[in-house]
Structures are given as structure tokens and as C-alpha cells.
Amino acid sequence: MPSQEELKFLQSQTLERKVRLTQTRIIEWYQHYKGQVYMSFSGGKDSTVLLDLARRIYPDIEAVFVDTGLEYPEIREFVKNFENVTTIKPKMRFDEVIKKYGYPVISKRYSEAVHKLKSKTISETYRNYLLNGDERGSVGTLPEKFHYLNDAPFKISEQCCGVMKKRPFKKYHNETGKYPITGQMADESRNRGLVWMKNGCNAFNNKNPISNPMSFWTEQDVLHYIKLTNLPYCSVYGDLVPKAEFIGQMAMDGVATDLVMTKCQRTGCMFCMFGAHLEKEPNRFQMMKLTHPKQYDYCIREENGLGLGKVLDFIGVKY
After folding, report:
1. Which of 32, 148, 157, 305 has its CA 20 to 30 A from that of 203?
2. Alpha helix positions (H), the chain
3. How far is Cα 133 from Cα 125, in angstroms, rounded to an integer?
4. Considering 81, 116, 151, which residue would you say is the last residue of a domain?
5. What is the SS3 assignment for 63?
């Protein structure tokens, strides 16, 4: 089983070596399933880099884009520039998901815990564990600082990702027999780091086999690859510039500098609130207000909208 030390070692490697390792993992996956694989393509910068790496080896490899209706308009247009892309859709809209299950807040793990705590079907023993841990001293699923979410005057749930993305991809696998390759990276979240340590890049033995050949990449690896290869990316990100230049500082000559996008830093689902409480201002919603006022108004307002305003007020995120 891979270790934390091994992950850190791989993350410390040069970009050139990471490219070779990633393409090796792609080849292993492709050959294992005799070409019955596909690229999970969101149109974001990570999956754009992964698709480029894969198609340098297998030019005809299929990409699959799940059109959730939550993507930035620029993302949906960008995806149209690529050949051999299959578009699939979920059965439910996001407004239907939050009405039935609840809003995604803080993180997937904590939203799931709150959803369970608000349920009337769990035992008092399990409820106590979710809040306080158990007699062995293990940490409870929901930290005390987020206990206030149990008093939220609205539903909270982690179900949106499963309904909007995982189910359509699962349906596609069942129909085609093809296995996914995704651009997930271990440094994106604690959970993804744990997943890598359990499975490595290619999870052949999972109940639902999946390949994450860029797991050991970092955000800076992705940005430097785009710059070095002059790879086209979606306009919603803005320009790719040195971070020192972006924040008005002088970069040191001869010293590698971090890169940054001048507009959106992430392009997942536009209305997702996972991690929003950790962002510096301007956060994703403040940026949306400036760049996509129509979508911003729809997501914030209560009447004929998604009602995210009341949720963001409750968790203390400015918008």
C-alpha cells in the first residue's frame, strides 16, 4: 500500500519525470482493459492537461463530458473545440437535487455527517459517535466547530456529486464497458490523499476501478505544463502569469516562480459551496458576481433561484 512518504517523494519530482510516470500509468490502464477506457473530461485545466497527455500516446482515445448544467458557459463552449467527446447528462437538475437532498456545504464529508444527523432513522449511539467520537477516543465525523450546521434551517447533503456526476458516469460504464481515467490529484483534498494511499494511481481492484494517473501532481505542475507546452485552456481562467507579477511584487531573476490564473482559480460546479469558507476574498461567489452576474443572481436569490444567499449567510461566507 502506498505511503504518505511515497506521495511526498513523487510530488517532489520534476515535471518532466511526472509526465513520464503519468503516461506510463495511462498505458498500463489502457493495455489492462485492451483499450476499453475513456477520459473523464470536465473542460477544466487539470482534465485538459490529462487529455493532452493521453492523446499524445493514444490520439483516438475517447473523452466523456458530463453536462450537469452547473458548468461555466465558457467551459461548455471550450469542450466543443475537441473531437471525439461524448456528452452525457444526469437525470436530475441541481435545483431538484438540493430540494430533495440538501445543499453541499463546507465539505463532502461534513455534509454527509450533517445529513445523517438530521435523519430520524439513525440510532442515538451512532448520532453520539458522529458528534463526539467513541470511547476509544477516535475523532467524531463532525468537528465541534461545525456542530452549528445541525441547526441550519435548510437541508444539507453530499448527494449532489453522486447524483450529478457519479451516476451518469456509472451508467455510461454499464452501457459501454469502458473504464475511466480522471484528473484527480491527491493535494486537492485530504480525502483524495487518503484514496491515493489506499489505491495508488490505478485502482484495478476497486469495486469501481478508476485511474487517477496525475494523483501526484500539484496545481503548479498543471500550470507550468500549460505554459511550457503552450496548451490552449478555457478562457474563464483568464491569463496565466507569474504570481509575483499578479500580486505586484518583483520576481527574482533566475528563480522559478509560482504561476497563477488571473480570473477563476477553479471551474468545478459553479454553485458548489464545498471549501468556500476557506477561500480568500474575492472568493468564487464574489468573482461570479463580477464575471457572470446572470448566473450569480440565479444562484443567490430565493425566489425563482437556488437560494444560496441564505446558505452563505448561515456559514459566514461573503458574496
Report:
1. 157
2. 4-11, 15-32, 45-55, 73-79, 94-100, 108-117, 124-132, 159-161, 167-176, 190-199, 219-229, 243-246, 284-291, 293-300, 308-315
3. 10
4. 151
5. strand
Task: Give the domain extent around 209.
Answer: 4-62+178-235
pLDDT at 251: 47
Distance separating alpha carbons of residues 238 and 141, to the nearest angstrom: 38
Query: 115, 102 in Cβ contact below 8 A?
Result: yes
- The answer to whether the beta carbons of residues 193 and 305 sit under 8 Å apart is no
Evaluate if residue 303 carries a pLDDT over 80. Answer: yes
The owner of cell 518532466 is: 16
Helices and strands (H, E) in the chain, number of each type:
15, 10
Please enumerate in sequence order all residues whose Cβ is within 8 A of that of 26, keeping only pairs 6 or more positions apart, or say none.
Answer: 53, 54, 57, 58, 181, 211, 213
Q: Are 206 and 179 in contact (CB under 8 A)?
A: no
Q: For 86-135, what is each residue's pLDDT tens digit? A: 999 999 999 999 999 999 999 999 999 999 999 989 999 999 999 988 76
Q: Please give the tally of structural domains in the chain.
A: 2
**Per the structure block, which three cell numbers stand in for 68?**
450537469
Cell output for 236: 474563464
Q: H-type helices in 267-318, by residue range?
A: 284-291, 293-300, 308-315
